[in-house]
Design goal:
Length: 74
């Protein structure tokens, strides 16, 4: 795995964790009686989805060469 790939995955993982923390904060504020903007939560859900899709795409790029090698060795 290349260093650039590892850095990219680390960045995406950090972004995912930050989004999770923001979603938890939204829930805490709501539980505390505040009325946070539902659009904020929707935006966080979209951000999490895009981040997870990007992580999945990065991992699939790693899987393809492995599958190719396995098929060629048969």
């Amino acid at each position: 795995m290349s260093n650039a790939m590892i850095q990219s995955l680390r960045h995406l993982n950090n972004r995912s964790e930050q989004t999770g923390q923001q979603m938890a904060d939204f829930g805490r504020r709501q539980t505390a009686g505040e009325q946070p903007d539902p659009a904020e939560f929707t935006a966080l859900l979209q951000q999490r989805s895009v981040t997870h899709d990007a992580m999945s795409a990065q991992l699939k790029l790693l899987e393809k060469p492995i599958r190719t090698v396995l098929q060629e060795t048969k």
